[in-house]
């Protein structure tokens, strides 16, 4: 690490927790989200969606809709100016459906009108004649040779990707064997700010799009292709993002709003409603996982055989990368000699699934951690002891052959959560009972359980992807004060990246006054705000740009070995020059494209240095369950995580708490229920996310074991806590109830064995 | 869409008679959700928020006449002693924001089988007071008010004016199962009222049938079994409490839906019935209720 990195002396720099610029605004309801955008004379867009999961469009009649006063445009696939295909990895998804619709909610036509209500009425007035087909809804059936092929162009039928990992003995045996089959329901990111944006046609024939997204440049590329415009004529600016969690990686209304704006010559705003939002973005892949673990009598893992099937739904989205994560991380943070892993991502007529916090590692972790508990039980061992015995550490070899070349403190994390004092028994207060203020128990039937989970996640984009970010840093004197501005295209999605970029500039340049400019496409790509990567990659780019600025300043001061501190150039604790005086009218500006070290592809045996960095978290869950009613209250959720460097300690804690809450949601309540390809609960009335009464206190241990390869030694924070909280909670419910509980979310029916239908 | 905003009950009733398809709206916690989700698109909204007569409660003999527009948070803070069952149910409604806006009148108007106010109204034999500008006022026993999912006996020209709820003369309980510890629609719910004066037992089942239901056989069984115990205040035999749970379970007529299975609802209602009877009887034994 460089000397400058270790300095955190500048107030509000790296390692501090300065106040977020958006914090008070959000709390007071004054923050401008993308749904608050406004332009004079703007029109409102609306989308007609398929009611069927699988059908042929025989006819679209737009006449009735066009005749409604106030309607300015009704567009279908025939109106897509460029390529009617998009997709993060495979361009397999139409901007507007052509002859076939493949999921319930697929966009078929779009409308612009002078009022949102008029636009909705016009959507209802569009006549579509469908020939309805039997949908393919079961992920295992979809892989069978006789299944209806949903994308005839795909060479591998309904299989989007199959990743196999083979290492060690191909036919291993072990004295102790446990097998299990697990399933994971479809979780939603449940961001609170629905898909929305404003497209403004420009005089040069291009378009300006203000939108809530996770990756401006990947949107720009896809929008330009669909509109048949050169990329530079599609200019994007990030609007206020109300949460993302992966759900804004794919396009939603971007192209639609631009098409309507270009067609009408007016600004067009689109805002999805809450129900529509459930159809407007991808979800977490549901999964079926079959595992076989072999171990010695002493509890050393000998082999893991696993088959993971992930339901990608109607279009590929990021399924290929999700499958790779499930396969390469699917054994967990354990040393295993022999691994025989097959992970599949499949096409069905279910809602498309793609990126969500944890990204393939979540599903696998629920299964392998459940297996570890099963194995511990069979061996008569303490479940933490079994994990400690097999835990990876720095220098361990992953099943892919990749060696973990920085801290992997799995053992320490497990011990930290294990050794925490136990929370006291529930007080005589309804809020401390399972069921809460709904008054279902005063202690009757309540049993306490404790469970553990530990997980592993890759940070950054993998498998040889050119993963970079671009930052421009400018230093100048404004009104007698040294001021830094930082410009990137990195999306602030609520995680605190704007705050962090300013912290880095303060630390590197010793300047208090830092402005972070709005993210837009006037600068090069920052990559996605996903994969726990933005602090690492955009943080790295901002630091690198600052270093160039600093070098130029020091050259100007003729003190190449000096430091910048509190607006001064300081050499050996002696002030050499004042920054304001030194700079005068001079502007020092540098733009840097920064990459993390390269990764490589996986070969046909799943071998390769595919990942940039590994991150780990462990949880201990203490729960009270009412065994008669099947209701659960998580009493306490202890978490220990290594973050390399807590760049902003408060934000780190926020990530751990929020991630753990999302894992809690998957454990006990969050599921999009899909029957015959149709979503049954597209609302926050019936898609439940944890409230403050569901989320327990979280004792945290944050380790800072620097990764020498990463800027400031940091390790991606956002995803690991989502991964291990789910299995820890389910393990605790198992411990209290004795039930097998092989599916998440665990429902009261599973605990009380009242699942049968009538 | 027309927006009608009467300021007196008489005006409101006339407006309803003149616009029988107008949808009354009080707190808006149900109606606005339906409008937002485009589930319904009424010709007119009849906003009752400005009608002062609906926003108050008064004691009328041994009843509380609860104005249809009194929000849940006032029931909780002002009527906990007089109407304990309804107050307990009110505590389980939504979030603080929803309890500030939502009303019993609105709950009755929506007539959802999952309405939280319904089981306690059934359990304590409340009446629903409705009125029309031409035909005057009528009172409908809560048990006869609901006729199907989201359907009631309310005529198109009528408005719900008040709930007439007997002041408790014995312990009351309400319990609701949801898959989240707050802000949840009932998977199933149960209200129980012991009336020490009349020596009667009232029940109300929520979210386990096409309408909110009573469990008449469970009530009759409990009244018979408890008959000699009102004076002695002896503990209820476990077998009796268990049987009561079974009878409540049998009275339900649940379906499988997105919130839970029918089998779970039957099972859970049995548990809730047992527990609430045990709590209520324990309260009766230690309380100052006179028979």
From TrEMBL, chain A:
Gene Ontology terms, MF aspect: xanthine dehydrogenase activity
Record's keyword terms, sorted: Oxidoreductase
Aldehyde oxidase/xanthine dehydrogenase a/b hammerhead domain span: 28-134
Pfam families: Ald_Xan_dh_C, MoCoBD_1, MoCoBD_2
Superkingdom: Bacteria
Compositionally biased spans, kind Basic and acidic residues: 1-10
Enzyme Commission number(s) of this protein: 1.17.1.4
Spans annotated as Disordered: 1-21
UniProt xrefs under Gene3D superfamilies: Aldehyde oxidase/xanthine dehydrogenase, a/b hammerhead, Aldehyde oxidase/xanthine dehydrogenase, molybdopterin binding domain
Enzyme class (EC, first level): oxidoreductase
NCBIfam families: pucD (TIGR03196)
Name the record gives this protein: Xanthine dehydrogenase subunit D
Organism: Actinokineospora xionganensis
Automatic annotation (TrEMBL), chain B:
FAD-binding PCMH-type domain span: 1-170
Ribosomal protein keyword on record: no
Keywords: FAD, Flavoprotein, Oxidoreductase
InterPro entries in UniProt: CO_DH_flav_C, CO_DH_flav_C_dom_sf, Diverse_Substr_Oxidored, FAD-bd_PCMH, FAD-bd_PCMH-like_sf, FAD-bd_PCMH_sub1, FAD-bd_PCMH_sub2, Mopterin_DH_FAD-bd
Gene3D superfamilies referenced in this protein's UniProt entry, alphabetically: 3.30.465.10, CO dehydrogenase flavoprotein, C-terminal domain, Uridine Diphospho-n-acetylenolpyruvylglucosamine Reductase, domain 2
Pfam families in UniProt: CO_deh_flav_C, FAD_binding_5
Name this polypeptide is given: FAD binding domain-containing protein
Protein species of origin: Actinokineospora xionganensis
Biological classification of the source: Bacteria, Bacillati, Actinomycetota, Actinomycetes, Pseudonocardiales
